[in-house]
Amino acid sequence: MSHMSLRAYCLLSILASSFTFSEPDSDTLFEPVYSEFIPAYDANAEFATTSVTVLKPDQFSASNISIADVIELAPSVQIQNTGETGSYASVSVRGAPSQQTQIYIDGVLQPSVGGEGGYLQQISASEIERIEIYPGSLPLQFSQATPGGAINIVRKKTDEAGARVLLETGSFGHYRGALSGRGQLSTVQLSGFAEAVSVENDFSYVNDHGTTLYSGDDERQTRNNADFNSLQGSLTAEKKTQDTQAVVTVDALTSRKNLPHWNNAKAIETYYAKQHIGIQGAFSQQQWGPGLDSSLRWQSRFDQGHFSDPSDLIGIYANDSIDHLRSHQLSHHTVYAISMGQFVLSNEWHDDTFAIEDSLQQFTLDASRQQYNSSLGFEWFASSAQTLSATVRHLFFVDQQSEQKTNVNDWGWQIGTRHDGEDWHWQANAQRSVRHPNLIERFGNLGTFEGNDELRGESAFVADGTLGFNTHRLSAQSSIFYRATQDAIAPVYNSQGIGRYINLDSAFFIGAEWQLSTGFRSVKLISSGTVQQGIAFSVLDLYDRKQVPGFYPIAMQQRLDWTLSDELRLAVDYRYESGLFFDRANSTQAPDKHQVDVDLSWTRQHIRTSLNLQNVLNRAHVDFSRMPLPGRKITLTFEYRLGSFQ
User: Fold this and answer.
1) Distance between CA atoms of 508 and 504, rounded to whole angstroms?
2) In a domain, 25, yes or no
3) Cα 1 from Cα 9, distance rounded (Å)
4) Which contiguous run of DSSP H or E holds residue 497?
5) Contacts of 213 (CB under 8 A, 6+ apart)
6) What CATH number does the domain containing 430 carry?
7) How far is it, in rounded angstroms, from Cα 34 to Cα 47?
8) Is the dihedral of CA 452, 453, 455, 457 positive or negative?
9) Is 482 a domain residue?
């Protein structure tokens, strides 16, 4: 036992079964006590050889509505908003666009054939146990790898009973109400939530009428036709024994976002409405053979969107289209633990169909993708402090649209190492990954994105290294990274915010990021950020050796967290972002972003109230598609909790 590291034994303990030693041998370095059920598909982020940032609810503000509101706390992440509250929000990880980043919910890969950024708005931040962000190489449990890493959203599952009521109001006609509860029925644990949001988004801003270099026609206006309304909920049933776990989750959402004209015209019946229903099931078995754990999961989701722009005010042309996404997935994971390490085998099957029907344009699109992913990885506990990992991944899919059929067969790999010292650790990883264009990139969405059926698939080589140091008062972690991409796919926008995906001949990214946390008594200081550069190469001089559009090369956040008393807490955030270009030729640059946010919360027994001020300096910001963002916003949140609800 003395030759096995704490990390190695923890992994084996988790993956095998529960161990409790009341009288350990004298040469045992620790007293392992593990009773939590860990399914085979869990990535064990705290032990991963790959770089990872884990966000937990105590880092969220009570006014955070969706995942998109919180994941920018990670230094590698930038949220790409396309407007005010309720607008489409995607994610850029280390400069990679949203489509290069995989989104997982409870370890289940979400379909990407129609674009994945919308999932960030569908998951309520109040129902999250943790968010794992892998900005480079991916852990063994993920059977697919893309250049922009992955985000795994883990929903709360607990045996504790309780309930929570949330009421919220704020600037620009903002209202939110939510109800959550957990309890037990016989031997089944039940949990659920419902949430309603309504925001008028009637903020004031300076309209430059599309002439950014001329101020003579600028005038202050109130944003027109930007309302957002949504209603969502979920119900989860879980039955667990010492060695088995069965979980079923059903979730649903309906929302409508009115879409403002780029020049703030009073558009009528211009909106995007969405309905979603999904069901996810999982069965996990531990120790069905010596050192052998397995998990089988299934997911079906049905999404329908309605884009209305009958007057041709905001899109490419007059539009009244219905889009459908139907997705089914079956995945299998097996972990086999031996004395020197563990093998991980993963297999996934996806059956996705994406369809668009437009009554005004007399246009239909019906495309499907059958996809199979598989991976085999091994973690080797080389010494008491050293872990090595290697993974081989295979991807095969068939796309069919009308009479056209496309087959793709591709491979990827990953190698990594981790060394754990007493107060510090280091990690190094390299990965080869691939990604092929989804259907929106190829065919457009008949609204705010044009199609490009000449897009080629992209491949990337990623390498990074991380050094971390942790003591009682100081936690620090720094990473350097490099990514070279061939045929990189990137979005570009025109002056009216209409986007199109293009292939860059090649691009490379290099950068460094950091996270630093220190505190003394009641005050905690947190600093995080990224400094990076992304350069694109092209045979055309106009685009050659230019910065890749759509991301900020400099992005940093400083946070002061001050516990004023047992009941009162103050948090002040300052975010600075600079250097974004909107276009491939680097002709138009976004203004620097300076934003100060303040959050004051008061908690006593079952009651919590919070006052959140966003953009305290009332700076006029624009988003990644050149649309104006709200100025200063004040939000008041009231929560009442019963039982042990967290």
Assistant:
1) 11
2) no
3) 9
4) none
5) none
6) 2.40.170.20
7) 15
8) positive
9) yes
Contacting residues for 216 by C-beta, under 8 A, at least 6 apart: none
Q: Is the dihedral angle over the CA atoms 7, 8, 14, 19 positive or is it negative?
A: negative
Residues of the chain by 3-state class (helix, strand, coil), percent to 5: 5, 60, 35
CA distance to 221, 255, 462, 557, 561, per residue, from 85 (Å): 18, 12, 34, 21, 26
Q: Residue 593 and residue 79: Cα distance in Å, rounded? A: 13
**Tokens 């329908």 belong to which residue?**
304
Structure tokens at 394: 């295979």
255: containing domain: 37-643
Residue 182 in any domain: the answer is yes
- Residue pair 445/415 in contact (Cβ under 8 Å)? The answer is no
Using an 8 Å Cβ cutoff, are 268 and 297 in contact?
no
**CA 474 to chain CA mean position, Å:** 27
Q: Whole-model pTM?
A: 0.84
pLDDT exceeds cutoff 80 at 536: yes
Q: Number of folded domains in the chain?
A: 1
Please compute Rg for the chain using Cα positions: 24
Query: What are the CA-CA distances from residue 162 to residues 23, 37, 526, 644 (Å)?
Result: 37, 21, 32, 5
pLDDT, tens digit, for every residue of 364-399? 778 888 999 999 999 999 988 999 999 999 999 888
Q: Model confidence over 391-445: pLDDT tens digits?
A: 999 999 888 887 778 888 999 999 999 999 888 999 999 999 988 887 777 766 6
The H or E element containing residue 324 is strand 319-338
| Secondary structure of residue 440 in the 3-state scheme | helix
Residue 112 in tokens: 């990407």
Tens of pLDDT, residues 542-567:
889 999 888 899 999 999 999 999 99
Q: Is 616 left (phi over 0), alpha (psi -120 to 50) or beta?
A: alpha
Q: So what's the pLDDT on residue 121?
A: 63
Within 13 Å of residue 124, how many CA atoms lie on the same side as its CB?
25
Q: Report whether 68 contacts 84 (CB < 8 A).
A: no
Domain presence at residue 531: yes
DSSP 354-402: EEEEETTTTEEEEEEEEEEEEEEEEEEE-SSSEEEEEEEEEEEEEEEET
Nearest Cα neighbor of 15 from 278, 265, 342 is 342
Residue 179 has which token pair? Answer: 């109800």
- Which pLDDT band, with edges at 50, 70 and 90, does 273 fall under? very high
Closest CA to 278 of 248, 256, 237: 248
The closest alpha carbon to 270, from 238, 310, 218, 316, belongs to 310
Residue 552 has what pLDDT?
Answer: 93
Q: Supply the pLDDT for residue 233.
A: 92
Q: What is the C-alpha to C-alpha distance for residues 30 and 41, in angstroms, rounded to an integer?
A: 26
Q: Which of 459, 403, 454, 402 is nearest to 436 (CA)?
A: 459
Which residues are registered as beta bridge partners of 102?
Answer: 150
Strand partners of residue 413: 392, 432
* Whether the Cβ atoms of residue 184 and residue 176 lie closer than 8 Å to each other: no
